[in-house]
Amino acid sequence: MKVLNKYSRETARDFALRVLKENILSLELKPGMAISENELSAELKISRTPVREAIIELAKAYLIEIYPQRGSFISLIDPKMVEEARFLRKITDTAVIETACDEIDEEGIKLLEDNVSLQEYYLSKGMTDKIFELDNQFHKDIYVVAKKDIIYEIHSTLMIHFDRVRNLSVATVKDFKVVGDHRNMLEAIKARDKKTAVELVDKHLSRYQIDEKEIRSKKPEYFKV
Amino acid sequence: MKVLNKYSRETARDFALRVLKENILSLELKPGMAISENELSAELKISRTPVREAIIELAKAYLIEIYPQRGSFISLIDPKMVEEARFLRKITDTAVIETACDEIDEEGIKLLEDNVSLQEYYLSKGMTDKIFELDNQFHKDIYVVAKKDIIYEIHSTLMIHFDRVRNLSVATVKDFKVVGDHRNMLEAIKARDKKTAVELVDKHLSRYQIDEKEIRSKKPEYFKV
DNA sequence: CTTAATATACTTGTATACAAGTATATTACG
DNA sequence: CGTAATATACTTGTATACAAGTATATTAAG
Hints:
The first copy, chain A, is mainly α. Chain A has 11 helices and 3 strands. Chain A has a 3-stranded antiparallel β-sheet. In chain A, helix 1 (about 10-25) packs across helix 3 (about 50-60). Chains A and B meet through helix 3, helix 4 and helix 7 of A and helix 3, helix 4 and helix 7 of B.
C-alpha cells in the first residue's frame, strides 16, 4: 500500500480514511485482498482505533467487507454495485445541472469559469495529469452552484465503485475531450439552457462507459460474480 | 432517551446506532441537545467504543455534530439539509419507479402485492399504527424490484433529516391516503405505465409537504437558521 | 464587589489490553 | 500414511486507560 504523508492537523482517522480511499481507487489495494487492522495501524504508524473507524466507514459504503473474527477484505468489483453507482450518478448529475441552470449567478459563473479556464490552460500545455483533479472539482462546483453540495459529499465515497473500474479500463486516454464537455456545460448553464445541459451530461457520462467484458477477461479474479 | 432492547445477536455498535437513529427520528433526542459518549455508554450499558463508532457514523450523515474536546450535539434542523434530502428522494424515487416498471416480474408483483394488501387490511381494521412500517417497507421493495437496494440503504440515514421534520408537523394524520397511493403505484408498475407511476410518486411526495414556517414558529430553538 | 488567575470537571481522540471466535498448523492416534 | 484432536496464531469486537483540549467553577488579588 502507498502510504501518504499525514497532514499535521489531520486526525489519525481522517488520515487512515484518505490513505485507504486513495489506495482502493488506484487499485493498489486489490479487490479481494485481505487487510488487517493491526497491519494497517503498523504501516500508518497509528493505533488500531482510528484505522478501525476508517475501515467501518468504508464498509458502510461496501468498499470493504468485514467478517467478524475472520478478517476484512477489499470488496471485489460487484457489477450490481457499479451499476447502482452509475445509475445514481446519472440521475443526480442530471437533476443537479438543471437546478444549477436555475440557481446560477455571477459568483457561480466565476467559480466554474476559473476551473474550466485552468483545464483549458493545462490541456494546451499538455499537462493532462493536472486535469483529473480539476475534473472532479468541476463536478463538485456544479453541485455547489445548485446548492446540493451535501448530496455530492454523501455520494462521493460510493462513486469509488464506479471510478476504480474506470481505472482498470485501458481507454481512459480520451480524457482530453472532457475539457470541451466542461466548457460546453458551463456555457449551457450560463445560458440557463437546461435541455442542452442535460444532453451534455448524458454525452459526458457516456465517455465513462466501461467495457466490463474486456476488464473481466483481463482480471477475472477481481470480480464478484 | 428511550433505550430499546438489545437483540442477543446484535453487536453493541449496531445496537447503539439503532437506538440513536430511533431517538433522533422521534425527536426524543432534541435538535441542539448535547450528548456525551460516556453518558450514552452508561445508559446503554455498553462501553464507549461502540457508542463512539455509532456517533461517528451519524456525524457522517450530519445528524450529529462532533466538536472535538467540546462535545457532541444532535444537529439542529437545517432547512438546506432538509431540502437536499427532499430533492434527493424525489429524483431517486422517480427514476427508481421507472426502472421498476422495466424490471417488474411475477416475484416482484408478489412482493409488492403482499405489502399493499396488508396495508389495506390494517386500514380497514383501523390499525393505522401498523401502516407506518409497511409504508417504509413498500418504498424499499420498489427499490428492490428496480435492483437499486444499495441506493435505498445509502440514502436511508440521510432521509431522517426529512422524516424528523415530518414528525414535527401536526398534519400527519392524513396518512391513510398513502395506502391508496401505494395501490395505484403498484397497479401502474404492473401495467409498466411509467408516466402514471411517476405522476403518482410526485403526488405521493406532495403529501409529505411540510409547513416549515408553522413548525419554526412552534419550535424556533430547533432550527439552525 | 470585580476581575483575573487557577483548579476542576468535563469533552473527544488515541492507544492498548483483553474477550471471543476462526482458520491453520501441529501433534497424536489408529 | 491418513485422520482426528488439539494447540497456536491470527482475526475483529469491546472495554478501559490515558492524552490533549475546552469550559466552567473556584479562588485570590486588587
